[in-house]
Amino acid sequence: MIKTKYISKFFTGTILTGIFLLVLLGVSVNQINAQVFVSGNPTCADLNSSNNPAFSSITSDDGFSTGNAPNQNPKNYNIPNVGTVTVAYNSNSDINFTASGAFITAVIVKAGNGANVYVYDPATASGGPLVTPLNNGGNQAGLSHLVFCYGPSVGTTAARAMVAGRVQVETGKFRGSILVTILNVSTGETQSVYTNRLGYYQFEDLPVGDTYIVSVRSKGFIFTPQTFTLNEDNALDMRGYAVSRTP
């Protein structure tokens, strides 16, 4: 009769071995849906327009090339208006990356007469190890450069701006505790704030390019709503007139 503790040790050892093999094979690091060799010098636009079903998850031409093999290890690259990518280049068979501010849909590893393309579906913020393609001698070619492809929504965060000003009545007095409301005509969303004791109000983090209406409510005074398209930070003072008068 086999003792329970030996069965337990057997299964524990088997599980640990399996985990070790998964780590060794890289399965635990951001599963890759496809690794495809492409001849020449492919770009993200080439992959996007390709009929190869392995690239069907790549729906944008957006991409960033390192320009050359990293001369530092690790090497940080800035993707304008998107984020950064850090590349750890250990060898032609051990290249890893971590992205900040971007989700990567594919990495093109260019070397020799072609490139290994690693497709990430869903997109990822880190991956590896990446391997360069083989040269004519059957050895892995030296890395030329990397291209990181990213989705159309990555790094395209709409610009933001603010609207701020003071609420004043015709007597020249600035009014505190006055309700100011801003309506985004483009989305139908509204925000409201009260002025401080000096009459100041402020709306932040507003999408640029949308049309807004700012209105003020105060007992005994009439304020004409102001309509505008927000292109940058906007200073907008609101002036009210007594109900008995019109502007």
Helix/strand order: HEHEEEEEEEEEEEEEEEEE
- Percent range of helical residues: 10-25%
> What's the count of strands?
18
Rg over alpha carbons: 29 Å
Q: What is the global morphology?
A: elongated
**Count the helices. How many?**
2
Element layout with pairings:
Layout: H1 4-25, E1 34-39, H2 44-49, E2 63-65, E3 75-79, E4 83-91, E5 94-100, E6 104-111, E7 114-124, E8 126-130, E9 143-150, E10 160-169, E11 179-184, E12 190-194, E13 200-207, E14 211-217, E15 221-223, E16 226-229, E17 234-235, E18 238-242
Parallel strand pairs: 10-17, 10-18
Antiparallel strand pairs: 1-7, 2-9, 3-4, 4-5, 5-8, 6-7, 6-9, 10-13, 11-12, 11-14, 14-16, 15-18
Give an account of the 3D structure.
- This protein has helices at residues 4-25, 44-49; strands at residues 34-39, 63-65, 75-79, 83-91, 94-100, 104-111, 114-124, 126-130, 143-150, 160-169, 179-184, 190-194, 200-207, 211-217, 221-223, 226-229, 234-235, 238-242.
- The protein has 247 residues and is mostly beta strands.
- It folds into two domains: 30-150, no CATH class; 160-242, Immunoglobulin-like, CATH 2.60.40.10.
- The strands form four sheets. The protein has a five-stranded antiparallel beta sheet with strand order 1-7-6-9-2, with no helix packed on it.
- A hairpin with a 3-residue loop joins strand 3 (75-79) and strand 4 (83-91).
- The longest helix has 22 residues, at 4-25.
- The radius of gyration is 29 Å and the shape is elongated.
- Mean pLDDT is 82; it is low at 1-12, 14-29 and 153-157.
